[in-house]
Amino acid sequence: MAQILIPTKALAVNPLKASQPIGASLAFLGLAECMPLEHGARGCASFNKLFFMRHFNEPIALQTTAMDQTTTVLGADDSVVEALAMICGKNQPKIIGLVTTGLSEMQGADVPRTIQQFRRKHPEFASVAVAPVNASDALGCLETGFAAAVESIVRTLVPRRPNARKKSRQVNVLAGALLTPGDLEELRDWIEAFGLMPIVVPDIGASLDGHLIDEGYSTLTYGGATRAEIEAMGESVATIVVGRSLARAADALKELTGVPDKRFDQLIGLAECDAFTQALVDISGSAPPFRLTRKREQLTDAMVDCQFQFGGARIGVAGDADIVGALADFFVNMGSHVVAAVASANSARLDDLAIDSVVIGDLEDLETLVVENAVDLIVANSHGAEISRRTGAALLRAGFPIYDAYGAQADAWIGYGGTRRLIFTAANLLANHFQELRPYVSRYRREAAE
Amino acid sequence: MLIFTGGYKSWSVVSAMQDLGMIVVATGTEKSTEEDKARIRELMGPDARMISDNDQTGLINVYHETMADILIAGDRYIYPTLKSRIPFLDIDHVRRIGYAGYDGLIELARNIDFAVHSPVWGLVRSLPSWAETKPARAVA
Q: What is the ipTM of this complex?
């Protein structure tokens, strides 16, 4: 049980967290033919878009209702209706994600009523789904905004059909914000290796993996979970949930479809991979294929080969709760000491960690702990680079945003193969950071006296 | 602990381990002189178990037989030991970590602790729940 520490300082000095609207928009970017629409000031959406572009090296489908002084005071509902109609007319999406922000939340925007208004005024766009998400900047973090959007996607698009006929090979996957596009590719392969057909929601692995298409540039998303797939989730034989943050979304899906679910906090590490593989064995009725058991053997070999680097290493982790949880578990299971842990927002996930404490705070809190506890390796987003430079600790980039390294979207650390890659990457960083004992110099030696 | 080194280290490492309160179950005597062996007997008693044969399989068998917690040897022995899921400490003379002197002995104790108590051993000896064959060879 980790102790949760909440500092009393009045401001974030070196901010760690990315806001809920970023997370909510990211979830919508994992749906095919989709356009997220942020209801807020123009600058909110433009900064969010910028971070997405730098992280994924991709054009990003993202629109804004561009609230200004007048609409903020006198009411912005008409601009929402107008924006929805314009996107429908111009881009022909199948789904629009309507995400509130700090400004519209503070104004008290009544989004469900506004959607009704849009429906009355524009029956010609009745086929376009609109999924609303309340995403105040003041609460939560990227991960909770993402989770709220997944819940809205489920509630808006999945029909209530608890008794639908099940397809024995079809499984649902609710994929949390801790998974990268690379992770999702790995996850899909893992499930398909058992002859199962996954419906991954949302699937940023299919939209933000970075691939050129024949059509070139697209104003909408480049792939992702299709609306038809989401509507068919009730026909699946099981649901797999990855990420504690998706608990409410998973409850909603279960309630609507009656499909039994199996929930995982994360999929990094041998025991976690074994539990997931066992779930696939149970769902499919098949034994794991040779390729998978071989990958397991490769992972255990990497664990024994690299444990020298991990034993006693002092680790600092910062990020959203599910990511902090996944990586803290990983390092603890490799024999390292997680002596600095900072999460951007509180979550029950953090209580269960086998480390002393977690601070709910910012990167300044992380830096203080890194210095106090002589941390060898920091795990953080790109904002951790400055802390790494100032303190001399090595940096492993994880989370969002990562804007100073290519291929962040392709990093896959889940599964047997992914855990093995993570072990090698972290072991190399620790090996290069190794501090040799200083040679002993006697005080009687002449040079020492100088 | 099971020590397999040679020459002067066949007794100097024994002595260091005993200083740390460890029980040395056997030590290697490859390339050790009679004088080295005499010192071993002085430290470990007249019936001290000495291994002069550098056969890897034999060494791993001795590890299981003596119910040791760790094998300490030169880096040539790392991978056969790790493949056997056995904790290992590299004591080769070209190693990068210094173990001499007071600070060195503390560093040695730390590294033994990390090697023996790494959670990795329990994990890699575990069988996945779907496997019904006999468990991988466990040592603990």
A: 0.90
